[in-house]
Amino acid sequence: MARSDMQTSETTFAAGDLRPEALCDMGLMYATGRGCAPDLVSAHKWLNIAAIRGCDRAAELRADLARSMTKADLATALREAREWMTMH
């Protein structure tokens, strides 16, 4: 899936279901490449948002994912999550 397609999906998603479990599912989609190219930065971003909103499973998955990411990618994911949270 092209980056612009992913951004469109995220925008559509952001306007819809914001339950922590749905946000966790978005993170898993990016982590596993289910329906899109795997994107660990986006996966961490969505898992982080889900964890902040109270999903314990997302917090565990986020921690596991973070161990396999570079510091630069992790910093990008955290920044993107912060930006998303300030907009929503």
How are the elements arranged and paired?
Layout: H1 3-14, H2 20-32, H3 40-52, H4 56-66, H5 71-87
Helix pairs in contact: 2-3, 3-4, 3-5
Protein architecture, described:
The chain is mainly α and 88 residues long. The chain has one domain. It has five helices and no strands. Helix 2 packs antiparallel against helix 3 and helix 3 (40-52) crosses helix 5. It is globular and about 30 Å long. 28% of the residues are buried. This is Sel1 repeat family protein.
Brief description of this entry?
The chain has one domain. The chain contains 5 helices and no strands. The chain has helices at residues 3-14, 20-32, 40-52, 56-66, 71-87.
Feature tags:
single chain; 88 residues; mainly alpha; 5 helices; 75% helix; disordered N terminus
Our measurement of the CA-to-CA distance between the termini, rounded to an integer number of angstroms, reads: 24 Å
Largest sheet: none
How large a portion of the residues is in β-strands, by DSSP E?
under 5%
Query: What series of H and E elements makes up the topology?
Result: HHHHH
Mean pLDDT: 87
Computed CA radius of gyration, to the nearest angstrom: 12 Å
Helix segment count?
5
Number of strands: 0
Shape: globular
Tally the structural domains.
1
- Structure classification: mainly alpha
The stretches of 5 or more residues where confidence is low (pLDDT under 50) are: 1-5
Helical percent range?
over 70%
Protein name: Sel1 repeat family protein
Organism: Ciceribacter ferrooxidans
InterPro entries: Sel1-like, TPR-like_helical_dom_sf
